[in-house]
Amino acid sequence: MMPIRGLEPGTPAALVISECQVGFIGDDDEDIVIAGLAEQARNRGIVARIAILAAAFRRVGLPVAHSTFVPFSNFNGTGTNSRLMASVVKSGKLREGVPAAEIHPSLTPEDSDLVTRRIHSLSAFHGTELDAFLRMRGVRTVVLVGISTNIAIPASSVEAVNRGYHVVVAEDCTAGGTEQTHAFSVAHTLPLLATVTDSEAVMRAIAGQ
C-alpha cells in the first residue's frame, strides 16, 4: 500500500479539528447558527469519526488542536466584511459565554490538547497560537477535520501550505454547508491543496509512525 503523501513513516503530524462547536454542529436547534451546515454534519456522522481519530492521535503521542471561533459577547473586533461573518454577528447566537460557543461535548478537549480561539477570520491559523504550537512540536503535516469544506477547511489548508506544512484532509470527518458544496470542494478545490483521504487510512498511517 502506498503511503499517504505527508504521512510517510517518520513524518510528524498533528490533528486540527476545525470549528466543531455546538453552534455549528450541535443537536439543539435553538443554538444552531447555520442550520444547513449542522444538518450536513449530523447526516455525515462526522463527530463520532473525529472522536475516534482524535483518540488515535493521542494514543500514539501526536498532538491534537481544536480551532474555535468565539467572538466577544459584544462582538467587538469581529468584522462584518463578509456575508458569512455578518450573518453570524446578526444572529447573535455564537459568542463567549453561551452554549453555542462550546466545543461539541463528544469532542471535549483533553489536557494535552491545544484549544485556540478566534474572534475574527475564517482560518485556523489567523491570529492564533496554532502555528507556534505545531512548530514547537516539530509538526510537518496538518491533518484537517471538521467544518466547513467550503470555507474554513480550504482556508486553513491554504494558510498551512503557505507556512510550509503538508496538509491531509480526512474527508469522512468533514462537512460543508450543502451536499453539493462539499462534493465540489472535495473533488475540485481541496485536492489542489491537500491529500484527500479518509480517517481509516490516516489511522493506519499514524499507527506506523
Brief overview, please?
This protein is 36% helix and 18% strand.
Q: In words, what does this structure look like?
A:
The chain has 209 residues and is an alpha/beta fold. Helices cover 36% and strands 18% of the residues. It has 8 helices and 6 strands, in the order βαααβαβαβαβαβα. It has helices at residues 22-25, 35-44, 46-59, 83-91, 130-136, 152-162, 179-189, 199-207; strands at residues 13-18, 64-69, 114-118, 141-147, 166-175, 195-197. A 6-stranded parallel sheet has the order 3-2-1-4-5-6, with helices on both faces. Helix 6 links the parallel strand 4 and strand 5 (166-175). Helix 3 (46-59) runs parallel beside helix 8. It is globular. The model has no long low-confidence stretch (mean pLDDT 95).
**What would you report as the Rg, rounded to the nearest angstrom?**
16 Å
Relative strand content: 15-25%
Shape annotation: globular
SSE pattern, N- to C-terminal: EHHHEHEHEHEHEH
Low-confidence region ranges: none
Strand order of the largest sheet: 3-2-1-4-5-6
Q: How helical, in percent, are the residues? A: 25-40%
Number of helical stretches of at least 4 residues: 8
* Straight-line distance between termini: 15 Å
Biggest pleated-sheet summary:
6 strands, parallel
Give the number of DSSP strands. 6
Mean pLDDT score:
95
Structural class: alpha/beta
